[in-house]
What we know:
By secondary structure, the chain is mainly α. Helix content is 68%, strand content 0%. The longest helix has 18 residues, at 4-21. It is globular.
Amino acid sequence: MLPASVRRLLPAVATTMVATAASGQAPARHQSPPQYQALARDPQHADTLNTLGYLLAEQGTRLEEAEALVQQALAHDPEAGAYLDSL
């Protein structure tokens, strides 16, 4: 069985994976990306922070928020190439 700390993250990871897979069809500008739900479960999940920041930047919306989210992800892992690429 997985440790409790890992099991706690599974819903956020699953939501992020599904949202990332579906990101080819980005939510309409008036809809919230599902990563917000994942962050509600785990506000410090670096992959989710980065994914949401990247999606917002790609949409050209909420650019300040997008940068702040990616910066938060980088605070968790400053060497992550994917996070650096999102900036």
